[in-house]
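JOB MANIFEST
job_type = single_chain_structure
chain_count = 1
residues = 440
[input]
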Amino acid sequence: MSTGPATALRLRDLSSPPMRAFHITWIAFFLCFFAWFATAPLLPLAREALALTQAQMDALLVASLATTIVARPVVGWICDRVGPRRTYTVLLVVAAVPLLCMPLVDRYEILLALRLLNGLAGASFVVTSVHTARMFAPNCVGTASATAAGWGNLGGGVAHLAMPALLGMVIALGADEAWGWRYATVIPGVALLAWSFVYFAFTQDLPEGDQLALAREGKYVRPPPKALLSVARDPRVWLLALQYGACFGVEIALENAATLYFRDRFALGLAAAGAVAGCFGGVNIFARALGGWLGDRAGSRGGVRGRLGLLAIVLVVEGAALVLLSTLDGVESAVVVFVSIGLFVAMGAGATYAAVPLLHPKTMGAVSGWVGAGGNLGAVAAAVALGSGRMLDGSAFLTIGVGTIALAALTPIVIAIESNATVPESEPVPLPLPADDVAE
């Protein structure tokens, strides 16, 4: 049995605690992301069925993003306190509730409330990041975390492709289109409930075992409650949070709005527009892992500074692609550039979390939560920019692109204040964790 973090990502290994946690975690994240985006491709039908206004549609797009801003730091802190196994199990159950309740929607207010609750599924990323980072040594933590997150992110793209098909199946079983979109979302809700049992039964918090059991034996010191606020005093955490908003946040906002954009801007059908959105998210199968792998390579040469420099480069290219998209009128070129943006936002997210676990490794749940919250703050900002018709005339993409480049320019500040107190690139985080290291 493993007694420490894995030093390599061995995908065919299903028996060791690190690799078993890796596979079960990315599947859980996939299901949560699927759930998070399950209603997005069906919003055009909700608009018709409930006679929604543009302001109400804008609110629905923002709702599931806004909740996650608060949820991610809290969930990260809970991970540090009770471990990712228990945290993820409960989160999977909670994330299923809004999908199972969707057949109750008969007016805008109920749909808005369920979209707000649906945002809790987005907090799953923090648990995925923490659980993966705890299981792998720093020499490969970026690759492992980014691969798990990237494969999990595929859930968003797959939802855009699969939900219209599930809707067709529900309609074939006898439901009409006006209500079928409500019943279709129940299916991913059931999948979340089923996987919660798998997660609790087959994972453990650390390579050494269960976190609470280790704490009772004196082999693990849980971070104190104030750790959530302690790491928030580090300006590197806040700057990375902003930059994560410029990659992951933009990814989420664009993926949420993609079907509406290509349907309204270029008159594509629901299936075709959903296919473009699916391709945008589908590049996560390799792009986020690529960003993490490049982050590890940059880290082996330049430490945390090298990882941050790589992130800056990716953000600049992403911003330039967004500016280009704002100038395009042809559907073919718009699709190519749009999917290319998906590539760079995913790489940027992977590069970000190649650096995050090394800032404060003893309280990585809190750090991951704050940076993850920044991602959703960026998603809300991008969603607001996309609203009120600004997406259709291209001005929203110009604004987001320029903002992304500006945030990349902050990287020299991050590098300048980055201390030498981070964990060595080649050494795993030791256990037990000294209490003075987490009190800060």
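[summary]
The chain has one domain: 17-209+228-420.
Residues 97 and 189 are 7 Å apart (CA to CA).
exit_status = 0
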